[in-house]
Design brief:
301 residues, 14 helices, mainly alpha, 2 domains, globular
């Protein structure tokens, strides 16, 4: 399943012919069906895969809506929040030496890149460990993807490294390119194409919102898993700002989207559970675990 989703991600973002794309979708859905039919979750997995594929395609179009890319407002917000300074500039000035790649840069790149796998791995974990929460997780993840996408369509916003190119900020190093391009320029270009290039979808930060959804779900699975996931979210926040890919205000907006979507999903789930319980009471059914065992005299003669 995870392999199929990643193959679809590559297919959608690689400009293949339509017939090949349709074939890849069909094969991947068939693989999902064979894998999960015993659990009865095929429809949820199918929605997850198809909606994610659609998202990856639409995201590449966010810079083609005709709305001009925004640079200045987010710089102003950042400076207002941090009393005239920009955290990305401060971090790079104090921690990064151009052309020198150390453990901090490599680890930040690893954390940043893990975003492309993390939601799928978490989907598998939830499906395996707590199937009753799989559907809410899928709804929360997809809701977060599409909510952030909608904002980027309306207000396409450039990241710090791009603002540095046009003069809204002093020079900002795009450390990901410095690391990957220095090792393998062709590999970097290919990876950039597969990842879905969109240089004006920084606000709100999906790279921040999705790890928070993962952390919320991990906490429901087990407090230790939740603690690890929240640490991962914090590491992602640092990496995004240090690497020059996002402003702090992008992260805050992403966090806000994730919290709102999460609250709505679980509010809806709680409401459905209450309605189901009310219907059971209306039919005279006792909650499971409190139903009286039939007595001998109850049996039909």
């Amino acid at each position: 399943m995870l392999l199929g989703a990643l193959v679809l991600l590559v297919v959608v973002r690689s400009g293949v012919p339509p017939y090949f794309f349709v074939l890849a979708v069909a094969v991947s859905l068939a693989a999902v069906y064979v894998t999960v039919r015993a659990g009865g979750d095929f429809r949820v997995w199918a929605v997850y895969v198809l909606a994610f594929v659609l998202f990856t395609y639409l995201r590449t179009l966010a810079d083609e809506t005709g709305n001009p890319a925004q640079f200045g407002y987010v710089v102003s917000l950042e400076k207002t929040l941090f009393l005239g300074s920009v955290p990305t500039l401060w971090l790079q000035e104090h921690l990064y030496a151009a052309g020198k790649v150390g453990a901090l840069e490599v680890s930040s790149l690893v954390v940043y890149s893990s975003y492309f796998l993390a939601p799928h791995l978490m989907a598998l974990a939830v499906w395996r460990l707590d199937p009753g929460r799989f559907r809410p997780y899928v709804v929360a993840i997809l809701g977060t993807f599409y909510a952030c996408l909608a904002v980027s369509f309306v207000v396409p916003t450039a990241p710090p490294w791009k603002a540095g190119l046009v003069g809204d900020l002093p020079h900002v190093f795009r450390i990901i390119r410095d690391i990957s391009g220095g090792v393998s320029p062709d590999g970097y270009r290919r990876a950039y194409e597969i990842a879905g290039p969109n240089d004006v979808a920084a606000m709100p930060s999906l790279h921040m919102a999705i790890p928070l959804i993962i952390a919320f779900m991990a906490w429901r699975l087990h407090p230790v898993a939740g603690a690890v996931a929240f640490f991962y979210s914090a590491a992602m926040a640092f990496a995004l700002v240090y690497l020059g890919e996002h402003y702090v205000v992008d992260l805050l907006a992403g966090l806000l989207v994730a919290v709102v979507v999460w609250k709505l999903v679980w509010w809806r789930r709680s409401r459905e559970q209450r309605e189901g319980l009310s219907q059971s009471h209306a039919r005279g059914e006792a909650p499971i675990g409190k139903r009286r065992r039939p007595l001998k005299g109850d049996a039909r003669q």
